[in-house]
Design a protein that fits this description.
mainly alpha; ABC transporter involved in vitamin B12 uptake, BtuC; two-stranded antiparallel ribbon; globular
Length: 330
């Protein structure tokens, strides 16, 4: 615990605030409803739920660090899950079909991400337009494949990916931690991570410094697509079926998580630890809402309010910093 606090002290204020908010919510709900909130069933349930949108949020974070956005992630997730499901069913739906289904899903996510990256980087179409259209395109493709109803008949072993545990720890949590470590390594310890941050901070300066912005964009959206497909695999495994409208609220939720986690909407800045803590905070809030039996529509409304509030506060703080710099220069 001491090591965690020491690391947070060396981090930014936003990360520290998220950490203490998470602790505060945990303590309050532990006092108000200890039997329900602190039960092993509820804790494992939270562990199963948050990696689905948490891994999706890492894809959104990478896109925003690059100075863009990826609104197509939910569409990629569902299409990937559907393609993987079709492959497994065509192979007989046995346990031996699972690796091929997962591979097909990951490849689908990669191709969708590269498609977005080419339109954004090569044709210079704004990321918001490309990915918003991509959301509709990928969702439509998924709907065309399924014809509407969910695809079922998947192997029971496939359902264990999202619903199983190892030593009491949900497999999804282990997968989330692995993904977080890999993304953190990419951002901190690779040339790609440096180029991504530089490109997001100043695209023109990045280009004149010799960085291949097109390559950075395609890699970024390709990785984002893979992360979307991983989320799609988890959703399909969770329900042991695939459908084109799973996780419809995850687009707003991933945006909220990334902004709340300290990622700059204008690009150039973003931390895995911030997004991770943001995921935990929102999962704790969501669990608290469920225990207090708050309507799901109210929950979505609250997410929207929080997102607007954070963006307003961030904008005001940035304006104050700009004004101070101007005064110092004068």
């Amino acid at each position: 615990m001491k090591n965690i606090i020491l690391r947070l002290k060396t981090s930014d204020k936003n990360t520290m605030a998220l950490f203490f908010i998470a602790v505060f919510i945990f303590i309050v709900m532990g006092i108000l409803s200890p039997k329900q909130f602190l039960s092993l069933t509820n804790l494992q349930g939270m562990g199963i739920q948050f990696p689905e949108f948490g891994i999706l949020s890492f894809g959104m974070m990478l896109a925003m660090i690059s100075g863009g956005i990826d609104l197509s992630l939910v569409g990629i997730a569902n299409l990937s899950g559907i393609v993987g499901t079709v492959v497994m069913l065509r192979m007989g739906g046995g346990i031996e079909s699972i690796p091929f289904g997962i591979l097909a899903a990951l490849l689908t996510g990669l191709l969708c991400g590269i498609f977005n990256g080419i339109l954004i980087g090569y044709l210079k179409i704004p990321p918001m337009l490309v990915t918003l259209c991509g959301l509709q395109l990928f969702t439509g493709l998924g709907l065309a494949i399924t014809k509407g109803p969910a695809l079922t008949g998947l192997p029971e072993e496939f359902g264990n990916i999202a619903n199983g545990t190892i030593l009491g720890i949900p497999i999804t949590v282990i997968l989330f931690v692995i993904v977080a470590i890999v993304i953190s390594y990419l951002l901190k310890s690779t040339v790609y991570g440096q180029h991504l941050s530089f490109k997001g901070t100043n695209e023109i300066a990045s280009r004149y410094s010799g960085i291949n912005n097109l390559k950075v964009i395609i890699i970024t959206y390709g990785i984002s697509g893979i992360l979307g497909s991983i989320s799609g695999i988890l959703m399909a495994s969770h329900y042991n079926s695939a459908k084109s409208d799973y996780g419809t609220s995850f687009t707003l939720l991933s945006l909220l998580i990334v902004v709340l986690g300290g990622t700059n909407p204008d690009g150039g800045k973003g931390k895995v630890i911030g997004v991770t803590l943001s995921v935990i905070v929102l999962q704790l809030v969501s669990s608290a809402f469920n225990i207090m039996r708050v309507n799901s529509f109210v929950k979505t409304f609250v997410w929207g309010l929080i997102l607007i509030f954070i963006m307003v506060i961030t904008s005001l703080i940035d304006n104050k910093h700009t004004q101070r710099k101007v005064k110092k220069q004068c």
